[in-house]
Each structure stands twice: as structure tokens, then as C-alpha cells.
Amino acid sequence: MREPPFRKRNASARIVWTVAIAAIFVDQASKILVETTMKLGQSDSVIGDVFRLTYIKNAGGAFGIFLGGGWFYFVASVVAVAMIFFYLRRLSVDQTLPRLSLAMILGGALGNLVDRLRSGVVTDFLDFGIGHLRWPVFNLADAFITVGVVLFFLSMMRTQQEGAEDHPQADRSPAHS
What are the angstrom distances between the C-alpha of 135 and each of 34, 112, 131? Predict the structure, then answer.
């Protein structure tokens, strides 16, 4: 006997919310740990000069990108969250990877939104690089968003490939006309 569709949808929604809430929790817990154990501007080596914990406050976007004032990033976050909810409702419950990737993006976006609501800026602390060649300092919310976006695009590419394999174009060469 097949499972009723509403049960499958409810289970899928629970998984999405579990991933999103876990991402928010891990992100916020890590930021609180940094804020309570480090001084603003402090940088401590974890793995030589390659990986450091560097506590900064970021008024810009992901990876320190500045595209406008604080309100711009707040509004952009709210719009992104709304778009994720819209898209999640349009996805089939069987589309597990796209749903999980959107849950990661949602958790990351909400994690940074919590910071903006709490203090107007985002706490960043993950610092990778060698010497003066450094990636912009970021946080776990940024990492969840980035990994989620990559997984989402990979899942969409896979879906396109599967669709192309299911509907091969007819051979239109002159020999078959």
C-alpha cells in the first residue's frame, strides 16, 4: 500500500526544517562561542597560517562584499528566504537533493539574518589563506549558503541530464529522412 501524499510531504517538510534549524543552531552557537571567548580583531592560528580564527564584525554581505548599507542586506535576506519558501513549495517531495540544498541555504540566510536583527552586523571568524593571500573571513552561515548553492546547481544539472536522457531528440540526419 502506497503512503498517502500528505504524509510524504510532511516528512519532507520535517527534514527541510530539521536541516535549516540545525544550520541556524550550529551557526549561532559558533558565533556566540567566538564572541564570548575572543576579542574583536583577535586572530588565532588553528592550522599554521592556512586556517585561523579571526573575529571580525561584517556590515557587508557574504565574504565581506559591500553592495549597499545594512538595510540592503536585511531586505535581500528576507527576499531570499521568501524565494526559498516559494521554490520549496514547487519542488516535488521526491526531489531530495534540491530540497536539502535549499534547506542549507535557508538555514544560512536565517543565521545571518539573526545577526543583522540582533546587532546590525554579522560575526565572521573563519579565515583561510597563506600569508597575505587570504580568502575573506566568513562564518558557518556563509558556508551553508555556499555549499547549498553548489549542491542546488549540481542537482539541477543532474535533473536536466536525466530529462535529456528520458526524451532523446529524434535523429534528423538526411539518412533518416
Answer: 19, 19, 11
Our answer to whether residue 94 is catalytic in this structure is: no
Any domain includes 175: no
| Candidates 124, 127, 166, 171; catalytic one | 124
User: pTM for this structure?
Assistant: 0.82
The position carrying cell 557587508 is 60
The Cα–Cα gap between 4 and 9 comes to 9
Give the domain extent around 134.
31-161
Return the C-alpha cell found at 133.
593571500
Helical H segments across the chain, by residue range: 5-37, 70-90, 96-119, 140-166
**142 is a catalytic site residue:** yes
Which DSSP letter does residue 54 get? E
The grid coordinates of residue 68 equal 549597499
Report the amino acid identity of residue 145. I
Confidence label for 60 from pLDDT (cuts 50, 70 and 90): confident
Q: Quick check: 148 pLDDT over 90?
A: yes
Supply 86's cell numbers: 516559494
Q: Is residue 171 assigned to a domain? A: no
